[in-house]
Amino acid sequence: MSGPGVPAATGLTGIIIAAHGRHYLADVDGRKLQCVTRGKKTNIAVGDVVNLKMTSDDQAVIESITERKTLLYRSDQYKSKLLAANLSRLFIVVATEPGFADDLISRSLVAAEAAGIEAHLILNKTDVADLLPKARERLLAYTSLGYPLHEVSARANPEHAVATLMPLLEGESSIFIGQSGMGKSSLINLLVPDADIAVREISAALDTGKHTTTFTRLYSLGEHASIIDSPGFQEFGLYHLSEGMLERAFVEFGPYLGGCKFYNCRHLIEPQCAILTAVAEGKIAKFRHTLYGQLLHESAQTLY
Ligand SMILES: Nc1nc2c(ncn2[C@@H]2O[C@H](COP(=O)(O)OP(=O)(O)OP(=O)(O)O)[C@@H](O)[C@H]2O)c(=O)[nH]1
Ligand SMILES: [Zn+2]
């Protein structure tokens, strides 16, 4: 944007690569700038493409956010929290051990569907052979819905893990999420060899304090791919999703929507409900419908 007659201080565009409280780090053509928002705004997410104005050599203020392709949220009763912007793929990392929670997987899938992000599953630690069949069997609940599953072992076969996952990242903006202990960090470190250095740099620039990795960060993989690593979380609240969004975010409901007796059916206790019939006939997994009911309940509890 700079050039003859254009002051260097205007027209900077960057991508937000880390966020910690109200402090952000933007990458502008490889240069890392500390950024703040104007006023008390906190509506910036990692992955946002922002217009910046320099305030000193390595600091800038965020003037505006460019239009987002997607926005991934989570929320509780009191507020919603931006997880990442402009994602095209979401990878849920699970493992043969420790055990994974179906609730968290389904919530992640629902969040991805609601945001228009393609969801994939990664099963790590396939080297733990005795637990592999059970893990595969449990994941059938999701592969049968059409979500792709990729099996890897970060420890026993790192080359295979990289060869499997790297092509899936090409041309995409991805996020890796998972419960603690699944091996998400091990996988990210294979895919982004200098991730540790980047985290230390980001942590220093954001002044997050020693050893803190509790911030979301973005790594670029060449020019056309990026990975966002988010700190593990135990809960994935989806209080922000409306009823209409929820029924559409359960992909297996799709064929039955519109088939209920009442046009405003909530698919909970209504007579002649096509969804409830499908559950009774085993065409929709009971645990998914139960979660749907739970999420519907959550969406009615919002205080914002
Ligand atoms: N057997 C086996 N162990 C693995 C594999 N990948 C990672 N681990 C181990 O699993 C444990 C957790 O791995 P991390 O990479 O720290 O997992 P994480 O999901 O990032 O967990 P947090 O850091 O708690 O969020 C470590 O002890 C790893 O060495 C694998 O493919 N096979
Ligand atoms: Zn219904």
UniProtKB/TrEMBL annotation:
GO terms for cellular component: cytoplasm. Its EC number is 3.6.1.-. CDD domains: YjeQ_EngC. GTP binds at residues 124-127, 178-186. Zn(2+) binds at residues 260, 265, 267, 273. Coiled coil: none annotated. This is Small ribosomal subunit biogenesis GTPase RsgA. The lineage of its organism: Bacteria, Pseudomonadati, Pseudomonadota, Betaproteobacteria, Burkholderiales.
